[in-house]
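hiii so my PI (J.) wants the whole complex modelled not just the main chain, which honestly fair. so below is everything: four entries, each one labled with what it is. i double checked the lines twice but i was tired so who knows lol
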Amino acid sequence: MHTDAIAFIGLGSMGAPMAQNLLSSGMPLTVYNRNAARAEALAAAGARVTASAAQAVSPGGIAVTMVANDAALEAVTLGPNGVADTLGQGGLHISMSTVSPETSRKLAAEHAQRGSLFLSAPVFGRPEAAAAKKLWIVQSGSSQAKVRAKPVLDALGQGIHDFGEDPGSANVVKLSGNFLILSAVEAMAEALALVEKSGIDRSALASFLGQTIFACPIYQNYSQILAKRAYEPAGFKLELGMKDVRLVRDVAEQVTLPMPLADLLHERLLASLAKGRQALDWTGIELVSAEAGGLR
Amino acid sequence: MHTDAIAFIGLGSMGAPMAQNLLSSGMPLTVYNRNAARAEALAAAGARVTASAAQAVSPGGIAVTMVANDAALEAVTLGPNGVADTLGQGGLHISMSTVSPETSRKLAAEHAQRGSLFLSAPVFGRPEAAAAKKLWIVQSGSSQAKVRAKPVLDALGQGIHDFGEDPGSANVVKLSGNFLILSAVEAMAEALALVEKSGIDRSALASFLGQTIFACPIYQNYSQILAKRAYEPAGFKLELGMKDVRLVRDVAEQVTLPMPLADLLHERLLASLAKGRQALDWTGIELVSAEAGGLR
Amino acid sequence: MHTDAIAFIGLGSMGAPMAQNLLSSGMPLTVYNRNAARAEALAAAGARVTASAAQAVSPGGIAVTMVANDAALEAVTLGPNGVADTLGQGGLHISMSTVSPETSRKLAAEHAQRGSLFLSAPVFGRPEAAAAKKLWIVQSGSSQAKVRAKPVLDALGQGIHDFGEDPGSANVVKLSGNFLILSAVEAMAEALALVEKSGIDRSALASFLGQTIFACPIYQNYSQILAKRAYEPAGFKLELGMKDVRLVRDVAEQVTLPMPLADLLHERLLASLAKGRQALDWTGIELVSAEAGGLR
Amino acid sequence: MHTDAIAFIGLGSMGAPMAQNLLSSGMPLTVYNRNAARAEALAAAGARVTASAAQAVSPGGIAVTMVANDAALEAVTLGPNGVADTLGQGGLHISMSTVSPETSRKLAAEHAQRGSLFLSAPVFGRPEAAAAKKLWIVQSGSSQAKVRAKPVLDALGQGIHDFGEDPGSANVVKLSGNFLILSAVEAMAEALALVEKSGIDRSALASFLGQTIFACPIYQNYSQILAKRAYEPAGFKLELGMKDVRLVRDVAEQVTLPMPLADLLHERLLASLAKGRQALDWTGIELVSAEAGGLR
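here's the output for the full assembly
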């Protein structure tokens, strides 16, 4: 079955380098993207480009999806000429997008009805990390799905972390991670405003933190971006951050958990959107703190 | 002048190992602690123990203070038989406690009137780090004070980070750091509750975070404490965390900056104190999130 | 056309007394309720009871709906044998439930396609106010719809307040009103805890407020309920309050507006639900404040 | 003893009309104000004007204070030539300023040591209400003090509400009231932004609320100010609102009670001050909500 090409659907800023890595690992690849232009570089590298998701998928084969949101994932999977009907008996769908746990559970059930497997496998890392095979992958789903997906995931990241059988679990972990990252951004934004208003150099605080008590990449990189207010070009757009925090709040409501810090982040994001900052990097929520302190 | 003994005042869980390190570095030491029993181990190691702060201090010499809070620092410095009057012309006061920037500015002015120098030099690190000379020291004050204090600080930590001439600046940085740490705790607490209520193992999330996107000690250590709810014995008591967040809010009010995340932390701490948890580790604010979600 | 009976759909704690008032005003009435038992009292008073919504509705006639939520309203209107298809050309649908503005806009468009009118007309008031014709009605929609609905609304309330042509506007006003009421509850809850923890009689504060600076029914009634913690039986269930605050947050997100106070109310409601308090009166969110202060 | 003149200290926008009312009631009055110009109108009306607080006060007589804040009250009471020492044995101090409960308790104890009584009696109402004898007065302290103060208070307000013996209680009630009022402002501000961003007339919502579910003066008056954003001239300055919310937070911390809504109000006030709005009416916090929604 592995002689069949793997179908890779969704060639955005994350999907394109991931697909490239599968090709580089020697896996035959069929690719589909709504905007065909993005598939050209992969065609040059040996991928077969198709005109629909269904054409990319082989019955009983493997399909990897990396699309923008829940609606896009549902459309490509369950829509007419979708992945689910085409994969059918014996297939495997590896879903790597950041979506809600509910969508994963629903798709897993739909695939099960058709005799195919579903693995939820979202990733942590920016496009550069994707290109460098440095993604962190979190997975959840059936053991069979994990075994069969392993060579594909190994070719994409630097480590796979398992969160059990519920196909929604990996999504909850991915959303929790993004929540934690943006919480760190908010905390740094408030601290940087506090030192700036106290007459202290913002950059000095940022450097100190990254070299000492928070010597890990997220604090090191983000504190520099925040100290300089370097929100363009965006590494991860603010409007995508909003999508993720919205999903965090949805899960929190479903499991009946108050998350005041998630609410605060949502307020920061909404205020940013109300000022037309959807295309800034998501760290740009810092401007809301700065403005509230009269710094701009 | 360096042949005089250094006076070390305040032998709590941080001060005692710090004083020990000065002794081990070959510096003659005179020590004072309100509770004399805590001075015995240092006496055994060669320190001279005195019955008052004033007796420990040599005119024109160096005094290091590591006491509980602003009131204690003011009392020991400006009270009868205090450090300020005794040090007098040519002295140096190295103040390492976590106090408000205002107190540092006030003490610096008082010392200046008496012809002595004042260096604000609070530290990051728990008692184990103090014992291992692994403290991170932040300093601010006059250049003269920094030059003269350097050998002392070098004997206490693994690095000195400078924040300029305003004696209050180092305190603002120290308070900002503690604010950032407790913000990370709150974020982890909410995320852990979210995964637990979603049926996912808390410890699995903690391990994942520490190994991947937050591979720095604060996330690694605190996520484990939080996952296990291991709040006793306290590494840093919740009531001390309250003191520090209160100081953060005081500075924010003075510089006219809203800090909603600091307010949230204050609410968590107050709720913890209202339930009698002042002696738990400050990470114990997690229980408030858990209880709000019906987890306990 | 007015000789046709008016169809009244939804005989819950609000709908039943409202339908009764239409009957008492001499309007012929056909009623439908999912749970038929609730229709008996109205049958005894002269209403014709039908087995489906469609059977209650006369083509070209008037249908009033007072159902639990958006899903119920959509089902009864657009589902098989729904109000929309049955009303058809020349009909009028008066929608009095608390639903989202989006649902009203959608239903108005669906009715327009079928040649019928739609009026959004939610109400303020508890069941006792409904029985006493003391409801406050807010309306929005086309002028034609308002003219034709007027006799019906006059028979139900003590005043009609108009908010223009957008069928969603009345819903936004209704949701804003409930947001304001629950905000007052939260404020009173915090104030009552403050005085109680200061050794002052809660009831004394409640009486003072209602007699002086807040001499209006919401503060008068709710401060007494809150002072006594008399949350059972529920006048308006906490889980219904959650539904409304959820709708407020949905609108806020759609119009890109941060509403931190709405977020706080949502946190209070979620914490209440997590403790199994869905059947308490919505003022029962007070318990969350009290518990956070160690009062219970 | 009642033949002695009553001393009235503090002739600000509230104190001046209150003193005028005592004169109009036929009570002989001696007045003192730091800024002597403000005493002229009262002199014309028959008051004796003195050059210090001490000169205004008769030993064993009655002194009424209505000053700006805790510091001013302490200075005028306990400072050199202060009210306390001059009143002495058999005197009564009626303290009507908005101050902390701690200050009242401290002053009551100081007076007791000198054989005089202290009554805490802060008021609700703006200057117009003071002029019209329409203040609501809340009191706490000893029974003796209440009996002797009654004729004075009767001449100043439309009702006295008693909160027991603890001299701090009346202050807690006063602070709670101001907290409730500003909470209502914040709620209205958010609701008005929600309707405005939904395309609905702000003034229509304001009128509706005041006529229906919130038919009491605070909602009626403030909703109109908010709808029109008429924050100048200030009825009650934003910086005074900040003082009061700061006192609320201080009490909350002393009694160990989280008050997230008070924290939100404080954030709104701080953001307003950071934008230089200290002289606007305190309802001007609304601008923060509006700006966060991109409305200005």
